[in-house]
Each structure stands twice: as structure tokens, then as C-alpha cells.
Write a structure and sequence with these properties.
Oligomer: single chain
Number of helices: 9
Structural class: alpha/beta
Number of strands: 13
Strand content: 15-25%
Helix content: 25-40%
Shape: flat
Amino acid sequence: MTLSEWGWNAHFASHFDALSLPDTRPARVVHQARTRFLVHGADGDQPAVLRGRILADPHADRPAVGDWVAVEGTGDVAVVQAILPRQSAFSRKVPGETTREQVVAANLDTVFIAAGLDGDFNLRRIERYVSQAWSSGSTPVLLLNKADVCDDVEGRRVAAEFAAPGVDVHVLAARAGEGLDALATYLTTGKTVALVGSSGVGKSTIVNRLLGHERMKTSGVREDDSRGRHTTTHRELVLLPSGGLLIDTPGMREMQLWDAGGGLAAGFSDLEALAQNCRFRDCAHIQEPGCAVRAAVDAGTFDAARYASYLKLRKETEYLEARLEDAGRQLEKRRGKEMNQRIREINQFHPKRQGRNRP
């Protein structure tokens, strides 16, 4: 197969050429396990590790599944020398208090957001995933799975469409193989799709159906709340019979937003349309007079729960931005101290150079 069938295009070719790294070749990351990878290039699959400089730098960007990289070496293990700039990336904030990005999947055309139509159906979670997907630079598509165990498929489909304006919504019963034909339009040769969602929504079953065989392990959900167990434990890019490329991801217990300001506006485009009629252009939609959004909520023409969800996600985004700004200042301050310490060490051992370091 050619690299173009694995998503290679002019964007990556130009950036690879600009690297000017002799004896390297392009390859795509198809599997990741800590600091070891499996990459696919013109000669097929090959294990790979990171070059020492990338591995030693805690702030260096690390490859994610879907990334294109420049690798060197034709032996048993290749060495990743550089990561090519991404065209898109679905990310989240790492779980916990640490303020750091986790790239879930890179260089995507589409993000399939899987949601269960069973007891774990959650509109607020759908809004969160849709906002982050818009922010990724790819197109979100909502997959409502488990229609065969839902008593009100049409009602929940309509509710999901309101929660995800402008997003294609497809109803599936993946275990029975129903509704999957509608996904063919997204899974064409050279196109990459990531499948994301919480545990128990049936992602592995969807992958197995699209592949045509049982490749991914599946398991049931708890009867009391329909929450699932982790059956996929790693991210992996697989080639489908249709020619499309699919990245399966583990179920996410926690989905904190990352750099989702623009995605939030797209995910709540209905609210943004109302905001055009607010008295003040910088209206925060909280207590300002003449707020068209609050007026619609008070009149019952805009869902109050959706309005509250928007405020919660915006607050989360603004808090993250503040944390990143503070972290940037702290990093700059720390690097300044390290530089001054290095200058003092040089002057201590080379006193004749002291004057050269003065402005």
C-alpha cells in the first residue's frame, strides 16, 4: 500500500522535506505503549523508540497514535527523530490536578463520538465531547449506540440533535449490526476517524463490526447504571476493509476540556446565535442587563440545563487558560534563574569573560 492510503498528503510531505534530516523516512504511529511505538511506513510495520533528546526532555512533545514522524534505522527497531506538525488533534486535559495536554489521537478528518442509548445516556457528556471535537480541527459525528435496548430512541435522538447542533447524528445497534452502513461515507480511503466516548458505550463492538471480525475484546456493563468496564486499554490505528483508517481509544472516565474555547462556541452555536442580540457585545450571559440568552432561558425557549452546561464548560475553559498562563510565567521565571546560574558558573571558572556578559 502507498503512504497516501495511510493519510499521507502534501501538508506532511512539505514539512518532512523542511526537516532536512538525512537517512530518515516518514512513518505513521499506529500503536503506542509508553515510550515504545509501532509505526507504519513504506516497508510496513516496524517497532520504534524515541531519540534520546526527546526522551530526556519532560517538556518535549511526544508522538500520539495518528502522528506522522520521521524515523531512522532499518534494523529491528527504528528511532523517532521528529514529529511532523499535526493537521488536527483530539486532546483532553490529563486527569487530576496536573495542567497538561494529553493528545488522544492525531491527524483526524472525523471524530466519532459514541454515546449509549441505555441508562448511561447523558446530554451534558455529549456537549462536552462535541465541544472538544470541534476544537480538535476535525468534524464531530455523533453515534447513538444500543438502540436495541432503548424504549425511546426517537426522543433521545431528537434530544441529542439539540445538544449537538450542526452535527450528524446516527442511531446504531452495533451488536446487531444495524445502522453501520451509514458510516461508510466517513471511512473512505486515506481518511482517518477517531472513535471516542466513555466506557460501556460499545466502541469495541463498533470497531469489530467495521472490521468484519472480532478483533477488539468486549464486555458487558453494570446493570445498575449501565456504566462499562475498560476493555480497550490502548490507542490503536487500524486499517478497515473500506480503506478508511480508524483509531480506537480506551473509554474515558474523565473528559476534561483542553483549549476548547473555539470548540465551545461551535458546540453551542444556538446559544451564540442568541448572543448576537445581547445589548453588550462582551456579554457574559450571567447578570448583564439586556442579555438575550438569559431572556430566552427565562422565557423557556432555551433549555435551562443546556445553558447551565455552557456556563460550566466556559468556566472550566477559562480556569484552564488561567492555569496555563500562570504555568508559562513560572516556566519563564525558572528558566531565567537557570540561565543566570549558568552565567555565574561560567564567570566563576572564566573570570576574564565577565565583561563580555555585561550589556
